Amino acid sequence: MSSRAVAARPLRRVAVASAVGTTIEWYDYFIYSTATALVFNKVFFTSLSPASGTLAAFATLGVGFLARPVGGILWGHFGDRVGRKAMLVLSLLLMGFATVGVGLLPTYSAIGVWAPILLLVLRLLQGLSAGGEWGGAALMAVEHAPEDRRGRYGAFSQIGVPAGLILAQLMFFVLGRSMTDAQFASWGWRVPFLASIVLVGVGLVIRLRIEESPVFARLRDEEERSSRPMVEVLRERPRALLVASGSFVANTAIGYIFLAYLLSYGTSVLKINRTTLLVVVIVGSVTWLVSILASAAWSDRAGRKPVYLAGSVLLVLWPIPFFLLVDTKATGWLLVAVIVLNIGLGATYGPQSALFAELFEPRYRYSGASFSYAVGAVLGGGFAPLIATALQTSTGTSLSVSLYLVAVALLSLVAVLFIPRGHSRSSRTAAAIRS
């Protein structure tokens, strides 16, 4: 066997660990989002009207995002001080604990106001975990990869988002086909949360077998680790933080409209069959996954910035046609709407791991990448479903939601324009990854 083939073994193992681990993490995160859209207003907020209950349920979804910057700072600090691998294992354990906890949580009718309070606490724990999970998985993949394949291997941490969404939607689809609405509302919604314990076990086994990032190992061996990584990021790379955070706002806002709000809007306002919508979301998620892989590979050849620009322009242009097609309630047009949308989402997500790694020095890279990702998620996706629900309820039209998404997409487009010129060709920035 050639030395190249032998050297590829740990890289493939890291790529698989990044993909499987983030898939499990985001499965946990997305079953919460899906359950929020479908059932939480009826289970934990029964004292409120249906519309108010939906708003309150989406508010708990948004609160989880507020914990993500804290998680980004926390996991980032120890990821830069202790190591990438240890943080990946701990974040997965925390997410699993919180998710299974939701599955075991008594309803409002059983324990009253404590039900939504405990739900909020568990959601905050999910947010803390998600705040550091992505940074660790992304850097493990990118820092192990050859210089000319940073985008391609970094995409393995990215595909965990649509893959986790597909897994979550398939779970709810199977439940929807195998039980009545009354059974699902009574106990069926708990099954995806409780099943997480098995998936977390699988993820832990895989993550415990991978090697530490060679970049971090070098920093540790040469005693070049930062003692205050977040402070250094703020002092030395404030522009990089702004660019990275801003570039992610549209992706996460529009992404959560697709994965959370579309289900609620489609079932409660348009009265589309829930199973039909789940199938549409699954098709869109598959498109998202393929688009991530294609755009990441493209960024290794053309550079990160051109790929980001193409995706960002599409996200500016598509929200209005998206809702016009969705409002037809025709399955064919629904599919067209989500397929085109997810091509744009993939183009602004596939190269992200490599881009964020290239923007920050190795000694504080985990902190910079995680914090930027978390802040972008808060500003974009944190309250996007809640804002969309409030806009549609107050105006009675989806056009207000479309215009909101266009405004968010324009903000990210401006941030993308400020990506440093060197990132227009990946070959010029390969040296930035090296320690």
Automatic annotation (TrEMBL):
GO molecular function, one term: symporter activity
Pfam families per the UniProt record, alphabetical: MFS_1 (PF07690)
Domain of life from the UniProt record: Bacteria
Gene3D superfamilies attached to this UniProt entry: MFS general substrate transporter like domains
InterPro entries: MFS, MFS_dom, MFS_trans_sf, Sugar_transporter_CS
GO cellular component, one term: plasma membrane
Keywords in alphabetical order: Cell membrane, Membrane, Symport, Transmembrane, Transmembrane helix, Transport
Transmembrane residue ranges: 55-75, 87-105, 111-132, 153-175, 187-210, 240-263, 275-295, 307-326, 332-350, 371-391, 397-419
Residue ranges of domain Major facilitator superfamily (MFS) profile in the record: 14-424
Membrane topology: Multi-pass membrane protein
Keyword Membrane: yes
Chief location of this protein within or outside the cell: membrane
Intracellular or extracellular location(s): Cell membrane
Protein function: May be a proton symporter involved in the uptake of osmolytes such as proline and glycine betaine.
UniProt record similarity statement: Belongs to the major facilitator superfamily. Metabolite:H+ Symporter (MHS) family (TC 2.A.1.6) family.
UniProt protein name: Putative proline/betaine transporter
